[in-house]
Amino acid sequence: MASPSAGAVAANRAVEPAQPAGISNRLVLLMAVATGSIVANLYYAQPLLHEISRSFHVGSAATSLIVTCTQLGYAAGLLLVVPLGDLHPRRSLTVAIFGVAALFLVVCAVAPSLWLFEVASIATGCASVAGQVLVPFAADLADTERRGRVVARIMTGLLLGILLARTVSGLVANFAGWRMIYWLSAALMALFVVILARALPAEAPRPRVAYVGLVVSSLRLLAEEPLLRRRAWQGAFAFAAFSVLWTSLAFLLSSFPYHYSNAVIGLFGLAGAAGVAAANLAGKLADGGRVALSTAVAAALVTVAFAFLGLGATSLVSLLIGIVVLDIGTQGMQITNQAVIYSLRPDARSRLNSAYMVCYFLGGALGSLLAGTVLASAGWSGVCALGAAFGALCVAGALFDHLRPPRSSHCSAVASLV
């Protein structure tokens, strides 16, 4: 096993002499763009929920299930597809996932009813997990000193994909209807099939493992690694809070006192651009061993954001501040968590990522599901109370870690930092 690995590293060094870790800045950029492009499929519907609601003649609670369906599909893909990255070459796996995503996006574009659109959304979410194959792929290629920053750069691409997804879908819907964004995304996925097949590096052969055992081993990691469990808790509730906002926001902005168009609603995604800076800062803090500080600050920001968002029912300035603060907190938490879990077991990064991200998106699905129900029954103030409650659970997790630092049997050095 040592010989093929050494040969692969030597080959990479020969191709990229300026990057001793075997990954060039150019390849990191491509991975970041690809990750952002495919994760955007999860968010195109969010600023358009009011428009989709009118198109299918259903209420806000039923339409909000679109977001829940997409996130549940993504969680299923994380559990069933991402672990294959520890079994099969990640280049071919990534290319295949992009191709399947293109197919189901076409189904979304032509769906004549809400139920079919929601089924297609589940499938699209499941087929949009290529970014979570690329992140541990890049972590493997990067050296230890750069790993946090490389992950942060690819996660920056993911964040930009999320931000631009909302903005682009709003603009496209304003001029060509809400279905057009799904046609455009399908074409983009097909383009990446060609580009990634040529650009991603080959990997050394992997030991054969039974697929069922591979999937089960992802979940087993949650039982074996206390640090992974706690990071999964914090990530799930931070993303639940994030989803509470973005599942409800379009309904607020399309009604009194705002009455904004699809294009303007989409532009609100750009208000979270500060999260890009947070992602890079969190990556540097993680590389520098300041994990506890990054976690505590991120949890506090997620909670405090909903105080501003509550005032945002009638104040645009407060609404924008709340969006920015929430995005900074959520992205800071995510980058810190991933930098920590990737240091646990280098031979199982895909499975670690799978276990963590399944919990992360189940949290998001819970937030979206509850947001639609709470919005219909308690309005915007109820939505903000719900988001603040999820934020408080993040703070509780950070406080618990501070009082009782978790110990990992495989990476005590990292665990002692948390």
Characterize the structure shown.
This protein has 418 residues and is mainly α. Helix 4 packs parallel to helix 6, helix 5 packs antiparallel against helix 6 and helix 10 runs parallel beside helix 16. The longest helix has 55 residues. The protein starts with a helix and ends with a helix. The protein has a single domain, classed as MFS general substrate transporter like domains (Growth Hormone, Chain: A, Up-down Bundle). The chain is built from 17 helices and no strands. The protein is globular, with a radius of gyration of 20 Å.
In short:
The protein is mostly helical. The chain is built from 17 helices and no strands.
Chart the SSEs and their pairings.
Layout (H helix, E strand, L loop, with lengths): L1 H14 L9 H15 L9 H8 L3 H21 L9 H21 L3 H13 L3 H12 L5 H30 L3 H20 L11 H14 L1 H28 L8 H6 L6 H14 L3 H21 L4 H26 L7 H55 L8 H4 L3
What name is given to the CATH topology?
Growth Hormone, Chain: A
Our count of helices gives: 17
Average of the residue pLDDT scores: 85
Roughly what fraction of the amino acids lie in strands? under 5%
Number of strands: 0
Q: Nearest-angstrom radius of gyration?
A: 20 Å
How far apart the termini lie comes to 33 Å
The major beta sheet can be summarized as: none
- Count of structural domains: 1
Assign the CATH class. Answer: Mainly Alpha
In CATH terms, the superfamily is: MFS general substrate transporter like domains
